[in-house]
Amino acid sequence: MMGNTFSFKKWLLIVLTTLMAIVVLLAALTVFIGYKVTNPTIRLLHTNPNNVGLDYEDVSFSNIVDNISLSGWWIPSDQQSLFQNEKAVIFSHGYGYNRTEMPFSSLELAAAMHEAGYHVFMFDFRNSGMSEKAPTTFGGNEKSDLLSAIRYVHDQQGIENIALVGWSMGAATSIMAGAEADEVKAVVADSPFSDLNEYAKNSFHYWTGLPKSLAAGTARAVEAIVPTFNLEDVRPIYAATQYNQEKGLFLIHSRKDGAIPYTESEAIHSHAAGSELWLPEKGGHIRSYFHYKAEYEERVLNFLDRTFKKYEPQIVEARYFT
What we know:
Blueprint: H1 2-38, E1 57-62, E2 69-75, E3 87-92, H2 106-115, E4 119-124, H3 142-156, E5 161-167, H4 169-180, E6 184-190, H5 196-203, H6 205-208, H7 212-225, H8 236-239, E7 248-252, H9 263-271, E8 276-278, H10 288-291, H11 293-308
Parallel strand pairs: 3-4, 3-5, 5-6, 6-7, 7-8
Antiparallel strand pairs: 1-2, 2-4
Helix pairs in contact: 1-7, 3-4, 5-7
Domain AB hydrolase-1: 88-208
Transmembrane segments: 12-35
Pfam families: Abhydrolase_1
């Protein structure tokens, strides 16, 4: 009897020890993956605006919250009208990319914007391109990066009317930053998520390669790795309520997006009065511009022109009396 009891206790100890080891290993794996997703491989810049016939200025500016050094290009327009307010567009790239390295040519879109009379500002979020290394937080700290870019364009370039164009993480960040900045009159958001906390639970496995149950835990691990990051703060769907007939929001999302379902944009659209939604049939994640280049440019420029017309100075007809 004593031998059986001893064997049972030994077996139980082995089982408990094994389970504890598995828990520790899973926790370590979750933290490790959390670290990896906040420190994606940095893509270097391999082109510049000169390659599409655009003059530009290299720009460095600091984040207004944590002083992270950020890098960008100011591409001035030479087609601004005397009778119109100057307008600028700020691009915000997706997770793991930089100002030019995306699944399409952001410089070609910049050239189209420039030709239409817009100044263009392209910059790298933290931990991307030529900007300073710091953990990527899927829109959390990136929001202050973008607010800093808006301040640069407003304060240093003197532009009062600004539009934001963003993709994926950059789209979600643009919605949030645009809701806070009075200078922003319009936002084009291509393939955003609506709520990072919910998205992490349902779809973070796409980015981590982990089973869904473990992938959700990596987002929480990021909160431990980056003390200034809070999942609850990254909710474009709540920021969307600030968009109305005056501050425009145009959502673009491919129905074939395997990374962020197009239903995320539909949810944001339902919370933004007067917002517009285009759901291309093909394209994949942030690939709509690649597949629908001419239509994409036409739709975006049409939306921006209609929105900015509300802010153009009114020309009063002179009347002469005898």
